[in-house]
């Protein structure tokens, strides 16, 4: 497996405008401390709201942090999460990623960790999955449609199914936030490291106990420049008709 540049040359100006946006949407972790206007942040949330939502339930909420005091309170939590990640999963470069490139990424992660209190804005997508509504007739059809093996499988994967169902309602909006940020010239990156200390994050932000958080997205004006992303070639990831 190797990482390749999506476009060898600049995308054609005749092509869809979204494609050049996606092809240069790198994770940008070095942010200027200058604030991002509230109306610009509202544009990001509007983009998120436009995103698809599994079952069209639209039960998402977004916590947008810009207050310096709140950010300073979150900074030690961010540091603990980043340090835990870099000491375990993040200790080694992913397969196929050059060590030098991974070293640059880690340096950016450490920079963001050390300057987190200066982050202009932080977006926390949240979701509380509505209680499912079942009736006896519907459950009978469900059981017949899945069969004994399917029912047994669902019994063993209910936790994963619930997590994926919630994620399908949240992550399309998260992607829209990242796309909108890139289109507006803002730097952003998405992580789930905060989940290692989710209860402490929720307490600091007043998020209800029965509401789950799905990401932490720092947003600001970039210190560096946007450039082409590096990804595996399409031919390496496509299985035509079957695996």
UniProtKB/TrEMBL annotation:
Residue ranges of domain Nitroreductase in the record: 26-221
Pfam families the record matches: Nitroreductase
InterPro entries (alphabetical): Nitroreductase (IPR029479), Nitroreductase-like (IPR000415), Nitroreductase/BluB (IPR050627)
PANTHER family to which the protein is assigned, alphabetical: NAD(P)H NITROREDUCTASE RV3131-RELATED, NADPH NITROREDUCTASE
Name assigned to this protein: Nitroreductase family protein
